[in-house]
Amino acid sequence: MRLSILIPAYYEQATIGEVVRLVRKVEIESLGIEKEIIVCDDGSGDSTAAEVERAAEGDTRVVLVRHTTNHGKGAAIRTALKRATGEACLIQDADLEYSIDDYHALLQPFLKGADAVYGSRFLSRFWPKGMRVANFLANRLLTTTANLLFGHNITDEATAFKLIRTDILRSLALKCDGFEFCPEVTAKLGRRGVRIVEVPIYYNARGISAGKKIRWTDGVKAMATLVKYRFRA
What we know:
Layout: E1 2-9, H1 16-25, E2 34-42, H2 48-56, E3 62-67, H3 73-83, E4 88-91, H4 103-111, E5 116-120, H5 133-150, E6 162-165, H6 166-171, H7 181-192, E7 196-200, H8 216-231
Parallel strand pairs: 1-2, 1-4, 2-3, 5-7
Antiparallel strand pairs: 4-6, 5-6
């Protein structure tokens, strides 16, 4: 089996190199899984792309694709998805909020037959480390809404750690360009009747000063996305 690790990156020169190095080193071959790493530089004007190439060190498993202008996280993931050759895709953020050490936890349910696995920041602790009050409240509201609208039973709708069968992910006909990628996927999995399995993960939030890009307006768009896909395809 092959795992395609999709990494959207926008102005992440400070962390993307370390992320690529850690993903290259994570040991999943003992599970019978090989990996490919597809980074989409979403129109960054810094050295994000150069850091990816430096961290790859000629490793052919690392593929860099680039947008000439910024389109958004969802668009970057969709571009990376087009290049994926694995049976499963794992979304990996370009910062260090999520730990690569949790790959094994995410993969175990998948290897037992799960079609979609989310890494939950709320299963192991009520309030994730470093998460601001506004983000905490938005996460709780979005998750409750997703559960009510689509019959899910999850604790973390907005998690960036999503592992999904590639054929299912492609069949969702994703359209969102921005951070609405997460609620769009969750909504369309619900409409399709795909059960989401959750596992606890480690999380260490970063602030705006450290490069965090999501804003309160993205929470509004996420809510609108959930409602929209409840009532239309």
